[in-house]
């Protein structure tokens, strides 16, 4: 990878904005996002790809940003949780489902869970409960017991319709 202390120039699109900066060659994408760009919705939980709190989209694919070097993201597009709802105040379908189903407690894992559910639903728009549980296998939550997170993913898969009323949100 080069000498310790070596720097590289990273040119990356993050949430629709281009950023060009010099960073240590070994800097992880999660640290570029948090420390250089101030996007602190992407959380650092383990730095070992175990917890999923750092999940972002890289060219539309969910990745754990603690296992991607910032230099590897150069020339690519990154989307963080800050951009999921967009510039407006409306939550996206997955975020709304998390709210409706009370799928969070402390909130630490929530950004990564939302990003993981978005990928799960892109890969499988109509998952079963077991498929949701399997799809979230790489994301840890220490508070919720996962039941409400699974319920939120299933609601989002149904297009945001609540079980009780069938009304779209």
What's this, in brief?
The chain is an alpha+beta fold.
**Largest sheet, spatial ordering of strands:** 2-1-5-3-4
**Total domain count:** 2
Kindly report how far apart the N and C termini lie. 49 Å
Any idea what the CATH architecture of the largest domain is? Roll
Q: What is the CATH level 1 assignment of the largest domain?
A: Alpha Beta
List low-confidence stretches: 161-169
Q: Rounded to an integer, what's the Rg over CA atoms?
A: 17 Å
- On the 0 to 100 scale, the average pLDDT is 90
State the total count of DSSP E strands: 5
Largest sheet: 5 strands, mixed
Our estimate of the beta-strand percent is 15-25%
Class from helix and strand fractions: alpha+beta
CATH topology annotation of the largest domain: Ubiquitin-like (UB roll)
Helical content class = 25-40%
Helical stretch tally: 6
Q: Kindly report the name of the CATH homologous superfamily of the largest domain.
A: Beta-grasp domain
Which word captures the global form?
Answer: globular
Taken in chain order, the helices and strands follow as EEHEEHEHHHH
Protein name: Carbon-monoxide dehydrogenase small subunit
Pathway: Alkaloid degradation; nicotine degradation
GO molecular function: 2 iron, 2 sulfur cluster binding; metal ion binding; oxidoreductase activity
Organism: Amycolatopsis taiwanensis
């Amino acid at each position: 990878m080069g000498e310790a202390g070596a720097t590289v120039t990273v040119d990356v699109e993050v949430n629709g904005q281009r950023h060009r900066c010099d960073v240590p060659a070994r800097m992880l994408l999660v640290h570029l996002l948090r420390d250089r760009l101030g996007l602190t919705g992407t959380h650092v939980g383990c730095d070992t790809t175990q917890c999923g709190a750092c999940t972002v989209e890289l060219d539309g694919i969910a990745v754990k940003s603690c296992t991607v070097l910032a230099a590897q993201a150069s020339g690519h597009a990154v989307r963080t949780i800050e951009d999921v709802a967009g510039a407006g105040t409306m939550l996206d379908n997955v975020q709304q489902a998390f709210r409706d189903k009370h799928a969070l407690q402390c909130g630490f894992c929530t950004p990564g869970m939302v990003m993981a559910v978005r990928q799960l639903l892109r890969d499988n728009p109509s998952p079963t409960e077991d498929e949701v549980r399997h799809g979230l296998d790489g994301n840890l939550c220490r508070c919720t017991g996962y039941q409400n997170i699974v319920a939120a993913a299933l609601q989002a898969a149904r297009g945001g319709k609540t079980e009780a009323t069938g009304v779209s949100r």
